[in-house]
Write a structure and sequence with these properties.
mainly alpha, 1 helix, about 0% strand
Length: about 60
């Protein structure tokens, strides 16, 4: 009998300070960092709204 997963919770922690273990370069100034953060948040919100809209269409 197959097992069906009805919910999946994923928790992620992102450190903006960076370190030796990160592969992405850090931005130099605080102003660009704020702009980048706002851009990432806007993209995430857009994707979440798209997923919710797709869920409502079903």
């Amino acid at each position: 009998m197959p097992v069906e997963i009805k919910e999946l919770h994923i928790k992620v922690t992102v450190n903006a300070t960076g370190g030796a273990s990160t592969n992405q370069p850090t931005s130099g100034s605080g102003k660009n960092s704020d702009v980048d953060r706002q851009h990432i948040i806007a993209e995430c919100v857009e994707q979440v709204l798209e997923v919710l809209q797709n869920k409502l269409e079903r």
